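> forwarded from #structure-qc
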């Protein structure tokens, strides 16, 4: 693979240029409506993660990936809410992996770190981003995660086969942050092999690169079903100063 011939572990600068790719091109089939542009307290879901990145000093630029029908809408959100770090708004692909690839290929040539964040996770914080970015700069790959609270069963055909040690289980979140060359190489291999990957860390793992876990948050939820929108409203009301955030 051509990308692997590069020195993908090199450190490009003391203060890494972090480009964040925000994926918002999904079909939202389980939600029943386009969750990314649905509103929470008068603001579109997409606003919240973009605003967190705008306020985070570790983030240098933002690439927003949306469906073709929503490019103008995403651009309006960035303009209306003053998301000055939004460098590009581009059209995603049919699969999440294709959308991520399109976003990664659009990042600045000076980017040494690239993060991928699910736009359906509106409650990411600067702290989560900064911790993952710091670990990625040190180790090459980092993802935020929280310990699993429930006992997990492995089953087949409705019959339990095993019970893994809960102390070794973590629910991973986004943003997942990687050295630019590592992520490009991992995605290039996944696309070439038509691999079934459920997150970008999985692609990096297949490349043989260790992925380090950083502290996530139980509030960094992914909006998937209508009931998640109700939970999101409650979480928002618990955020200090949220009433002073920009609004339509």
């Amino acid at each position: 693979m051509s990308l692997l011939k590069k020195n993908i572990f090199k450190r490009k600068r003391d203060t890494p240029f972090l480009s964040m790719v925000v994926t918002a091109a999904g079909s939202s089939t389980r939600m029943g409506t386009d969750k990314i542009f649905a509103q929470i307290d008068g603001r579109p879901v997409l606003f919240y993660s973009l605003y967190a990145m705008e306020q985070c000093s570790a983030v240098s630029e933002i690439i927003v990936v949306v469906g073709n029908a929503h490019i103008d809408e995403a651009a309006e959100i960035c303009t209306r809410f003053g998301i000055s770090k939004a460098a590009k708004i581009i059209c995603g692909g049919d699969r999440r992996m294709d959308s991520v690839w399109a976003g990664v290929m659009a990042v600045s040539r000076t980017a040494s770190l690239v993060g991928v964040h699910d736009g359906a996770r509106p409650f990411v914080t600067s702290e989560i981003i900064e911790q993952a970015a710091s670990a990625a700069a040190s180790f090459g790959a980092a993802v935020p995660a929280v310990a699993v609270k429930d006992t997990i069963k492995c089953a087949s055909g409705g019959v339990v086969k095993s019970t893994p040690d809960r102390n070794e289980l973590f629910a991973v979140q986004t943003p997942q942050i990687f050295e630019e060359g590592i992520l490009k190489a991992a995605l290039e291999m996944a696309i070439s092999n038509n691999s079934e990957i459920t997150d970008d860390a999985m692609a990096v793992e297949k490349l043989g690169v260790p992925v380090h876990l950083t502290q996530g948050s139980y509030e960094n939820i992914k909006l998937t079903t209508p009931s998640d929108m109700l939970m999101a409203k409650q979480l928002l009301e618990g955020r200090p100063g949220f009433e002073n955030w920009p609004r339509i």
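QC bot note: The chain has seven helices and twelve strands. The first strand starts at residue 18 and ends at 24.
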